[in-house]
Amino acid sequence: MRIIVCAKQVPDTSEVKIDPVKKTIIRDGVPSILNPDDANALEEALKVKDMYPDTVVSIVSMGPPQATDMLVECLAMGADEAFLLSDRAVGGSDTWATSNAITALIKSIGPFDMIFAGRQAIDGDTAQVGPQIAEKMDLPQVTYVQEFSISEDKKTVTVKRQLEDGYEEIKVNTPCMLTCIKELNTPRYMRVNGIVNACKKDAPIFVKSAKDVEVDLTTVGLEASPTHVFRSFTPAPKAPGMIISGEDEKAQAQALLCKLKEKHAI
């Protein structure tokens, strides 16, 4: 059995600042990390591998050459191989163009049984790439997966999908796409021997170009992207709250009513 895990290297959002003039994210000096939801996706794939040792866990990603640092982390956690699509031709891709590129990368790897992905990336928060890949590969998909189990014959999986007021229990045939949330599991730490092996020159990290994966260049990159970020900004701080006082509830209600009338809210 083969499981594909979509992973992305993202800036640590706790360290991100906005350029006040250019209105863009300042990435210089900001550490990059494995996207947290993708770590949950990888952990669930590794849990399946723990149950079925013949499982191959393959990581796919798109980004600059330094994204291999994140792939080393994935291998150290227990993944078997990693594929990075790194090419200027795909630079500046929005979610639609990114899903085109990742779809081509996955198709170039070969057959698989499942794709795990994080719900969303913390740098964009769109939650679109996973579902778009599923649509382009004609795969059944379930998003916001909070519980997962696989049948003994490995032909179906049963998941609980998180909702605002509960959950849905869904059974889906493989191959399929599942996007994961943090409630699904707790990602494991990297192993010492895993770190050693992942850092070797012959570690199974394969960097591919757009030509290697045979992606249509008219569907990737900045110019092919139908959406563009106009500007990034830090929201203005909210005004401090107000405490309504009074001798009793009736007096407090009367004071609140007066304040609302002052602000022409009622």
Give the helix tally.
7
Indicate the radius of gyration in whole angstroms: 23 Å
Overall shape: globular
Largest sheet: 9 strands, mixed
Mean of all residue-level pLDDT scores: 91
Could you outline the blueprint of secondary structure elements for this entry?
Blueprint: E1 2-6, E2 9-11, E3 17-18, E4 25-26, E5 32-34, H1 36-51, E6 56-62, H2 68-77, E7 81-85, H3 95-109, E8 114-118, H4 129-136, E9 141-150, E10 156-163, E11 166-173, E12 176-180, H5 192-198, E13 205-208, H6 210-213, H7 249-262
Helix pairs in contact: 2-5, 3-4
Top keywords for this entry?
266 residues; two-stranded antiparallel ribbon; 7 helices; 28% helix
Account of the protein in words:
The chain is α/β, with parallel strands linked by helices. Helix content is 28%, strand content 25%. It is built from seven helices and 13 strands. The protein has helices at residues 36-51, 68-77, 95-109, 129-136, 192-198, 210-213, 249-262; strands at 2-6, 9-11, 17-18, 25-26, 32-34, 56-62, 81-85, 114-118, 141-150, 156-163, 166-173, 176-180, 205-208. The protein has a nine-stranded mixed β-sheet with strand order 11-10-9-12-8-1-6-7-13, with helices on both faces. A hairpin with a 5-residue loop joins strand 9 (141-150) and strand 10. It is globular, with a radius of gyration of 23 Å. The N and C termini lie far apart (63 Å). The relative contact order is 0.17. The model has no long low-confidence stretch (mean pLDDT 91).
